[in-house]
Amino acid sequence: MSIPDLQKLLADFADRRDWGRFHTPKNLAMALAGEAGELAAEFQWLDPRESAEVMHDPAKAHAVRMEMADVLSYLLRLADVLDVDLDAALREKVAINEGRFPAE
Amino acid sequence: MSIPDLQKLLADFADRRDWGRFHTPKNLAMALAGEAGELAAEFQWLDPRESAEVMHDPAKAHAVRMEMADVLSYLLRLADVLDVDLDAALREKVAINEGRFPAE
Amino acid sequence: MSIPDLQKLLADFADRRDWGRFHTPKNLAMALAGEAGELAAEFQWLDPRESAEVMHDPAKAHAVRMEMADVLSYLLRLADVLDVDLDAALREKVAINEGRFPAE
Amino acid sequence: MSIPDLQKLLADFADRRDWGRFHTPKNLAMALAGEAGELAAEFQWLDPRESAEVMHDPAKAHAVRMEMADVLSYLLRLADVLDVDLDAALREKVAINEGRFPAE
Question: Per the database entry, which stretches of residues form a coiled coil (chains A, B, C, D) (predicted)?
Fold first, then answer.
């Protein structure tokens, strides 16, 4: 699915549960930080080599995928309620970083 | 752009700077948590109404968009190095949540 | 207990479990971010008034206290392995902030 | 200083600036997550050995100490507004963990 289609899927999910009143930008940014913390926790005791092999264990791989989905879902919801075009924002940031970090 | 196209853009950006050795899953998960914290910081002292109007101030709006781009970029890089299909992961998570939180 | 006594308690706890090899500064900083995310999650859907009353519910109050203890324990462990005097660091930061944010 | 004395120092600092209205539990938990993210960012690209030597560079050492002070200050403020005894909470969590993770 495209980013806008995924946003539509999530907006419908929230609407059917009347969760719109909870989905203020502040609350969504806070939920995103919480999920990013949970994703980081999956890697916190791993050394670099172990972190590269984290997907070899099916249960761990599923946990990582679901935490990544949680991060993405709150980011997409936040972009939706703030009317931010994530694709354009990312390309703008990459252009800024091209100037800040010139390639060799 | 599609999610895979954005991932390609970011992978090329990293490759041209020889940043691949820094982009272990552990480091990317940690960078993602850091950026999510910076995004949350944009909202930390706002009340719910102020948070809904955060994009009315152009400078603040730009800061929020760029923090969101940072979060997305590390999430896309992490998905790339772990070979996670974010679109499929999100749809799987939504399906799980349909069961956990039945709509009225 | 004083901060150094709490640090000694935590260091002994870790030593008896041979956890010292996991407690690199990087891993502890990552664990701290994870716990801070879990603490934030306790408040993410609350409005300001509800957040002020969060300790009225005994089960929720216990969860909040235990998440705060987790954050403190990783902060104290990190200070211990980096040989940072947290008391002195906090007083230095307050002195810096006295200059940055003059009181009326 | 003891933990209660540090809390008094921070409460006075906030009171003299009329910041009490911003220091809801929700806002403080969010600020804590933001600072924990900034602290994590100091370590995000370091390998385990580099992270152990992070305090050898005076500028980096100062940045790390100040980020740790920020985390501590929001944790102490949150404990103050929620009337949580951090010392008791930490010892309770250690007692729980003694049961969950028996030492050899």
Answer: none
CB D41 within 8 A of CB B27: no
Q: Choose the closest CB to B6 out of A43, A69, A87.
A: A87
Q: Searching chain A, which residue's CA lies closest to the CA of residue C21?
A: A45
| Segment B9-50, tens digit of pLDDT | 999 999 999 999 999 999 999 999 999 999 999 999 999 889
Is C66 close to D94, i.e. CB distance below 8 A? no
Q: Do C30 and B33 touch (CB under 8 A)?
A: yes
Residues of chain A that touch chain C, judged by Cβ-Cβ distance less than 8 Å: 22, 27, 30-31, 33-38, 40-41, 43-45
Write down the domain spans for chain D.
3-100
Look up the CATH superfamily of D3-100: MazG-like (1.10.287.1080)
Under an 8 A CB cutoff, do C29 and D16 touch?
no
pLDDT tens for the 104 residues of chain C, in order: 899 999 999 999 999 999 999 999 999 999 999 999 999 999 999 998 899 999 999 999 999 999 999 999 999 999 999 999 999 999 999 999 999 999 87
